[in-house]
Amino acid sequence: MNEHTGTIVQLLKEAGTYLSGDLIGRECSISRSAVWKHIRLLRELGYAIDSCRKRGYRLQGTANAPLPWEVSATLETETFGRGLEYLETVDSTNRVAAERAAAGVPEGATVVAETQLSGRGRRGRAWISPPGVNLYFSIVLRPRVAPARIGQIPLVAAVALHRALSSFAPAASLLIKWPNDILAEGGGKLAGILCEAGIEADVVHHAVVGVGINVNGRTLPPALAGVATSLAKESGAEHSRPRLLAAVLNFFEQDYRRWLGDSDLGGFLPYLQEHSALRGKTVAVEGLGGQRVGRVEGVSAEGELLLRDADGRTMKICSGDVRIGPLAPPATGRRRG
User: For residue 292, what are the contacts with CB-CB under 8 A and spacing of at least 6?
Assistant: First the structure.
């Protein structure tokens, strides 16, 4: 697959009828034999292309795959997704994107894969990545901010992701679960975010934001039953994966630029509060310091989860796994009477 592959798709879309192999070859400066190889590849990618002797090729159906030329059709960004690399199979898009970042790719470079063999979530958890139905992609960022602000990026991404998904399924009630998940109202996980950074001597060289979205899957693996959901299940319809990827990139570039222009997450707090999956709920947060239990009050401007414990004290949680109650608060050592 190269630039000629996308050009042939565009020629067939614009024609709306049969195009001869000779004409396509002249437009691309390639042989008829090379044209046939690209047609065969496009069919493998999911395009429905009819061929007729002496008439040529006609496009009958477009592939629902996050291919660069399909994504760019609705992309409105300056940098995000402009350098989009599509891979059939990878171990992890975050690993590939980190390699590209170390090699010097510009900000906004994006790696998208049809399937991941070792997709990862937070804390090293596996992200099940079947082909043909979902989106798995990673974006390279080069924010000129203090390292302490990097932990805010997943929440910025979550806002952008929520905006994009809601625009595709406006009737679905989608919620943001601190710090990096999008849930359906019933609690099923729809999307997750994994942010990793390259930091040295208090200098941020790059950050990689990995996103996994359950898009069109109707049947989930037994291990995910009751835990995960998909956009198709929540909206009752299948969706264009390239258009959805473009929408996420469009919203994320807007929100990322706004975040860079601010000193913290202050401008995002109203949105995070309105669409919070945890607001007002009693939760247990498992972190390096053990378990903390409290009622969620919101998110701080620095991105911390604000919990009020049984004694009325407010705790600031920087990271951890959140489990929603009802939960008994931990013993405080105080005696009643």
Answer: 284, 285, 307, 309, 315, 317, 320, 330
Q: Is residue 77 within 8 Å of residue 71, measured between CB atoms?
A: no
**Digit-coded pLDDT (tens) for 241-253:** 999 999 999 999 9
* CB of 179 closer than 8 Å to CB of 106: no
Residue 176 has pLDDT above 50, yes or no: yes
User: Helix (H, G, I), strand (E, B), or coil: what is residue 31?
Assistant: coil
CA atoms within 13 A on the CB side of 23: 12
Contacts 24+ apart (CB under 8 A), 224-227: 224/128, 226/188, 227/188, 227/189
In the chain the domains, ranked by start, together with CATH numbers, are: 3-61 (1.10.10.10), 68-274 (3.30.930.10), 282-324 (2.30.30.100)
Q: How confident is the model at residue 126 (pLDDT cuts 50, 70, 90)?
A: low
Q: Please report which residue ranges of the chain form alpha helices under DSSP H.
A: 3-15, 21-28, 32-45, 68-71, 93-102, 153-168, 231-235, 241-261, 269-274
C-alpha–C-alpha distance, residues 298 and 317, integer Å: 11
Q: What is the DSSP letter of 198?
A: E
- The alpha carbon dihedral of 275, 208, 206, 72 has a sign of negative
